[in-house]
User: Which sequence fits this backbone?
């Protein structure tokens, strides 16, 4: 079944609150989306420091009060219900992928919202650059890399990247446009040669869907906000909740707010 993306953030969140489970690329174009990691207060400083030390993959754009499921990035929204899919982790192991997390919620949790590269896809499309996973209704391809993040407290792990195939003659434009949005990952971290990142097979992403690369196109890699999930797998905190990769929180903040 083909689902038409909601044109507004409120419409997107309402659809996900109602149980729709689809990747959010192309939803509410013109508005920023966010990755999410939720940790007990005991780990909140470690998570904040991890983002501060690794701003390229983990640009923090919002932090909630302890125990609050609400954010200034979308007044009235509920982080427990308004994403399309979540992941629940215990001791670094994925134990559930629910549609909402109210049964896991408690007053000791702190939520971090992290910039998402979906935010700069709208201006890329407006510039005539194809974003294939949107055109095909797919999730973006994401990969663990051989680049280690700077550790912070009890958190460490590899950087994750997202990949978009870009026509060779438009790579410079994609770099320029995304580079205008440093708060949502900014310019690519690598272009071409996936093996240099330790990626053996682009057809087998660690997260998301494989996306076709056509003749005359170059794989372009951006730092990805799924990186905290790789840190959870590596560091094995006792409990954490994240978004499911590609199933972001749609904010009320216009894209251009994060442009420089």
Assistant:
């Amino acid at each position: 079944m083909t689902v038409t993306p909601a044109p507004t953030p409120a419409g997107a969140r309402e659809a996900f609150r109602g149980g729709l489970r689809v990747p959010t690329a192309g939803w509410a174009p013109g508005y920023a989306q966010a990755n999410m990691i939720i940790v007990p207060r005991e780990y909140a400083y470690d998570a904040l420091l991890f983002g501060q030390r690794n701003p390229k993959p983990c640009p923090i754009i919002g932090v909630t009060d302890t125990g609050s499921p609400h954010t200034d990035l979308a007044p009235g929204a509920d982080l427990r219900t308004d994403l399309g899919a979540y992941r629940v982790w215990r001791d670094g192991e994925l134990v559930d992928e629910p549609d909402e997390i109210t049964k896991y919620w408690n007053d000791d949790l702190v939520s971090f919202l992290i910039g998402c590269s979906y935010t700069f896809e709208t201006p890329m499309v407006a510039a005539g650059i194809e974003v294939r996973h949107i055109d095909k209704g797919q999730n973006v391809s994401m990969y663990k890399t051989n680049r280690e993040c700077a550790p912070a407290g009890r958190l460490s792990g590899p950087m994750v990247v997202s990949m978009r195939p870009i026509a060779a003659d438009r790579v410079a434009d994609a770099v320029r446009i995304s580079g205008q949005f440093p708060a949502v990952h900014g310019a690519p971290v690598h272009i071409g040669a996936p093996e240099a990142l330790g990626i053996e097979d682009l057809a087998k992403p660690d997260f998301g869907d494989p996306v076709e690369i056509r003749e005359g196109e170059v794989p372009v890699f951006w730092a990805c906000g799924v990186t905290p999930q790789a840190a959870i797998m590596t560091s094995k905190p006792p409990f954490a909740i994240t978004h499911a990769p590609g199933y972001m929180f749609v904010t009320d903040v216009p894209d251009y707010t994060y442009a420089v």
Remarks:
- The longest strand covers residues 31-40.
- The first helix runs from residue 9 to 17.
- The chain is about 20% helix and 25% strand.
- Helices lie at 9-17, 41-53, 121-126, 132-135, 171-179, 227-235.
